[in-house]
Amino acid sequence: MADQDPRARDEHLNEAFFATKPTRSTVFLRTFLPWPNPFNPSVSVRLYVDGTRDVRLAVHDLRGRRVRNLFEGRLSAGWRTVVWDGLDDGGRATASGVYFLRAEGAGVDSATRKLVLVR
């Protein structure tokens, strides 16, 4: 496995964790895994951006309303870790419940992961 292309390994991880074939979004975000999940008070999301591009990461509630904009801007290729502290854009604590972290990149499909906040 040491000689294996790391991109192939990441695609295998995506298939194993999400039981789906890699799509354009998993090529853009090779790994997009929140941890811990459920979480309190914060969750970290490790992701790999496949090339320099504009990226937006935002947390939404069950109704689709944006709760928190975590990042919006240009990222170069590589690994990143983004942390959500359970606060909304106004700095207020959000309620326990299910949230969705949505990642969007210029010219690629978006990807979404479920987050569970337990207070």
**Mean pLDDT figure:** 80
Second CATH tier, the architecture: Sandwich
Query: Strand-residue fraction?
Result: over 45%
Please name the CATH topology.
Immunoglobulin-like
| Computed structural class | alpha+beta
Q: List the strand order in the largest sheet.
A: 4-3-6-7
The helix count comes to 2
Taken in chain order, the helices and strands follow as HHEEEEEEE
Report how far apart the termini are: 41 Å
Broad shape: globular
Mind summarizing the main beta sheet?
4 strands, antiparallel
Number of strands: 7
What is the radius of gyration?
15 Å
Q: Work out the helicity level.
A: 10-25%
The number of domains: 1
Low-confidence stretches: 1-22
Written overview of the protein:
- The chain has a single domain, classed as Immunoglobulin-like (Sandwich), CATH 2.60.40.
- The radius of gyration is 15 Å and the shape is globular.
- The longest helix has 13 residues.
- Helix content is 15%, strand content 46%.
- The N terminus is likely disordered.
- It contains two helices and seven strands; from the N terminus they run H-H-E-E-E-E-E-E-E.
- The protein is of the alpha+beta class.
- The protein has a four-stranded antiparallel sheet. It has a three-stranded antiparallel sheet with strand order 1-2-5.
